[in-house]
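General statements about sequence and structure are easier to judge against a single worked case. No coordinates are needed to read the tokens, only the vocabulary itself. The sequence in question and its structure tokens are set out directly beneath this paragraph.
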Amino acid sequence: MQERDKQRPAMGKRDIILLVCIFYLLGIVTAIGIYLFWLGKTEAQAEEPELYSELYVADVYIRGDRTEEESKLSKEQNYQLWEVTTVLRSALYQYVKQTNKFPKDLSLLERPFPYNYLSAIPQEPLTFSKVVADTYTGSGGWVYQPVTYALEKTNEPMLKQMIQDILYPNIELGQVKFPDFDPLKIIVNKGKNELWLVSGKIVLQKYPVGLGKNGKTPEGSFQIEEKMMNPNGAFTPVKNNPYGNRALVFAPSFAIHGTNNPESIGNNVSKGCIRMNNHEIAELYAKVPLYTMVEVKEDGPWAESLVRPLYKGSSNSENTFNQINRPKEENYGVFYNWSG
């Protein structure tokens, strides 16, 4: 009887050695592939900038074909866009908090004293346009789409989100993604003789200040009640004016103002007011809206460790924010006698 199945020949010693070699080579190739994949992923992660980790933009990942200078300019431009947008949104926020309604157009933010939330609507810094449109076109400037319904039941998070949604740069959608909107706030650190302009935990600027002698600068939470250019200008020229060229009044007898004595900055010599260099108060004044919160403390846990600089370069404020003198923001003929 013939066998239906032929028996397969047994594997020889050469066959076993060949199989071992094949599996060994496959293991080496697999290991090399895994290593190359891991290396590529690590390098991609290393390209993500540290300072800008909270502000994601199209150019935030530094590509290999871009120079260091090009990447720096990209970060500067995007920081400027975030800063200007935050200033404008903060003015709108303060207007709504005071009036319980959205303005029909943004020009209501730049009215004469005492309703001067801002000196001027800032230009959008990428296209240098100040045009305000009611629909998105991507052509530069701003988009403002006010709502008309009652705001009595709108809570704080809802209001911030609404402002973020209805006021934004009129540039290519998806080009930038900002941190969640937080209105501007002034923090005065008496222990360091510093004034910080912040949005949430992001520091926009730090300024040295002169404070009250023997702790006379009041501590607590206040808000900017009045903004004016050239206080007492009808009586004293700026170069001789102890209040300098700008004033932000935060209490009946106290203001953040300029000075004709720059040597006093960094010292505690006033009767309670907060003094700044004239060029720096002009910059602060141009950014800070009416009714901005002012917090004055000796020292506290909110100091350096909790506040993260977003960008360490120059914000080019003089070209971005209007700092020229405007007679309509002077309270001409009224004599002020703050606590110096």
